[in-house]
Hints:
This protein is of the alpha/beta class. Helices cover 40% and strands 17% of the residues.
Amino acid sequence: xxxxxxxxxxxxxxxxxxxxxxxxxxxxxxxxxxxxxxxxxxxxxxxxxxxxxxxxxxxxxxxxxxxxxxxxxxxxxxxxxxxxxxxxxxxxxxxxxxxxxxxxxxxxxxxxxxxxxxxxxxxxxxxxxxxxxxxxxxxxxxxxxxxxxxxxxxxxxxxxxxxxxxxxxxxxxxxxxxxxxxxxxxxxxxxxxxxxxxxxxxxxxxxxxxxxxxxxxxxxxxxxxxxxxxxxxxxxxxxxxxxxxxxxxxxxxxxxxxxxxxxxxxxxxxxxxxxxxxxxxxxxxxxxxxxxxxxxxxxxxxxxxxxxxxxxxxxxxxxxxxxxxxxxxxxxxxxxxxxxxxxxxxxxxxxxxxxxxxxxxxxxxxxxxxxxxxxxxxxxxxxxxxxxxxxxxxxxxxxxxxxxx
Length: 405
Ligand code: PMP
């Protein structure tokens, strides 16, 4: 695989920002899209647009086929046993809210517990807090150490007979930590605790096999996996999904409706009320096929090389402090600069064509743990190069000069 050939697939990367080549280092927030994904969207609207499932005419049938083919692409991509266990939702956020509301409604009683980790994104905290408030349940938090690694020795004490679910991230968007998720799931299952894995940050970077993981639920977002915004996936074991009540009421999720009583459709439609994001689903299928065409070996090796290079270069700068130094990481580097607010770091490097994120990364408890308000964060996708990182390093020297560090 040649990186220049890959970069040529991403039209946005060809542009200059303030006269500099764009160094896009914010793929953890959202990834850029290859031509094939952009074309899938416009091709759908130009040649195939029709509502799905209910039509008896050619366009509707071919749109339905493309939509359901994309579900099979998702099934293959995460190695789900059945396509009906792959539910299309708006995003990781919606997937977690769905489980919190539907699984929570079914399983959680006053006095019960939901276990989370100390490194969760707000979208894997707030839905559980809302559930706990409603049900009189409580949250238990698996702690982490100063490197940003979970303290797995304590997991057995966090899980109790009252724990109804462990909801945990596979990889941290703010720290980059890649958690030993299979081991965590094994421990939880040994305590009869089902596990939801927030895969928003892992799915773009490594092969996901939900059968090997044996997770009960797995979630990811299309827009971080080189696909469109507005589409995400919830995988769930059918025995859970079948027992859960529907999420939203409306068209398509029903089997029969009368004013006296409604019966619900089978999986996956029970959880897909109303007209779905048809074009986005189809383009998500294209994005997953794109990732597979590049290959996991290339992606993992390439991104690990970028991570190693950036980690070494940034740790050698005395004015930089890395936040999140776990042994196992995805391509995410968070850092602070003594005396400079991360927002200033982000705004200044932007002047040199470097796009990084600054803020709390929707993970305020992590910021509190490290006693900082925010970090600057560079994150890598399969299209980044060592020269993107060099461009960041040079721009950081400009920040240093301005602040006389
Ligand atoms: N979990 C993690 C770990 C994330 O990084 C994100 C996105 N930053 C989310 C959940 C939420 O994803 P989305 O905004 O696509 O719903």
